[in-house]
Amino acid sequence: MIQPERPDAPTVIVACTNGPLLVRGQVDIVDATGIPVEHQRKTVALCRCGVSTIKPFCDGTHKLIRFRTAPESE
Amino acid sequence: MRMDTVSRFQERGPVSDCLLRVIQDPAQTATTRLNELPDTLTVALGCTADILRDDDLQLALFVLYGLSYGGVVAADDEWEWAPALVAARRSIERMFERELRSCVPRPPLPVANPDAVAAALFELTSPDPGPSLARYVAKQATEAQLREFLIQRSIYTLKEADPHSWAIPRLTGRAKAALVEIQSDEYGGGRPERMHSAIFAGTMRALGLDDRYGVYVDNVPAITLASFNMMTMFGLNRRLRGAIVGHLAAFEMTSSIPNRFYGNGFRRLGYDSVATWYFDEHVEADAVHEQIAGRDLAGALAQDEPTLLADIIFGASACLTVDGWASEHILDAWSADRSSLRSPLDASAHAA
Predict the structure, then answer these.
(1) pLDDT tens readout for residues B39-95
(2) How many CB atoms within 10 Å of residue B16?
(3) Rounded to a whole number, what is the distance in Å from the CA of B157 to chain A's nearest CA?
(4) Would you call A40 and B291 a contact, using CB atoms and an 8 Å cutoff?
């Protein structure tokens, strides 16, 4: 049985298999100097493979470089 | 985006001719034309060679669905649930679905859990390095071809997200929450000016096109209508909720990278960030949506209703196949220096 979410439920980061970090919940994103990075949507995907053209956000390019979050099993 | 509707589309054969005449009258006025519809339809369904590319039947289905969407064709609201028109819709849908189920490739089914389903969908939709419409637009499309591209896309995109929204009350629990999370973003997160359909309308205006829904229906080929009709059929039939979920997952998973290319094509021809906002928005948005759609929407639905697994994969494969054919149609025409439109654009129609 899933419990109702508490009002102070923490922001959750989903480490997507072979993909970005999906951040769901209230979060402040700032650059290295502390200046806020503008973001419009409630859930954001942060680049984890390093090749996104819109860092810190994901643009799906991890699929072109076949980024893997775990060693290939075969 | 203006909301006035196109008064009438050009008929493309006996069924669309009959239907378009029928809905010109108020629904209370039973006409002899209405009585002619079932037989006309039976004949047309009996002799169609390929319903996906049948202009007459795809336009008829598009008009029938338009009665439920609203804002597509000027008609008495009462026509939406007129039994004879619902029956006509069902007849076309039956053959359309049968044809899709026979021509769409059926990849092997994964285990019905979120990880396996997401992995299978990402594998199915993995980017193809070969020639594509997106690369053509990025590298060599002309100004006129960009306009054609927007016209072809406008059939769905001026109603972006609506076909999948039909599925919201047909889902429950995790899958419903995931679909609403995606759709909320599609609809601008509470800001109408950020609705994806509204942003796309801005791109159309930036290229001097008319952004009213349906203005270019007469110009687009059957396969473009079929792509939109397929989504609507999947969304409007509760039985096909697995297929609409799979469709959305595949749609989102094949969006971010092509949209970057599309944006590059418009930038190459000197268009500013107002014109490319739609594409830029999708690069970022759909990188989020594809993760939600794969695991939380399709994956959770497969786990909660394992009997829908085959249709989830079918819907994804149908999206890739039919949209692939629609893109191929455009690319083939352009490669042969032809217009991809069914009827060429009237020079006055895109005067800003």
Answers:
(1) 999 999 999 999 999 999 999 999 999 999 999 999 999 999 999 999 999 999 999
(2) 23
(3) 20
(4) no
| B284:A53 CB<8 A | no
pLDDT at residue B131 in the model = 77
Chain A: closest CA distance from residue B291 (Å): 7
Find tokens 């692939």 and name the residue.
Answer: B324
Tell me how many degrees the CA angle B275-B278-B280 measures, rounded to the nearest 5: 95
Give the C-alpha distances (Å, rounded to integers) separating B45 from A20, A68, B87, B323: 47, 48, 13, 23
Beta bridge partners of A46: A21, A57
With beta carbons under 8 A apart, name residues in chain A contacting B290.
60
Q: How far apart are the first and last CA of chain B?
A: 15
Type of residue numbered B294: G
B236 touches B169 (CB < 8 A): no
Tokens for B88, please give them.
């006509």
What is the C-alpha separation between B166 and B86, in angstroms, rounded?
17
Confidence of residue B126 (pLDDT cuts 50, 70, 90): very high
Say how many C-beta atoms besides its own lie within 10 A of residue B29's C-beta. Answer: 9
Which residues partner with A12 through β-bridges? Answer: A24
Q: Using CB atoms within 10 Å of the CB of residue B237, give its burial: 0 to 12 exposed, 13 to 18 middle, 19+ buried.
A: middle
CB-based contact B288 A61, cutoff 8 Å: no
ipTM over 0.90: no
Look at B260 and A59 and tell me if their CB atoms are within 8 Å: yes
The model carries a pTM of 0.94
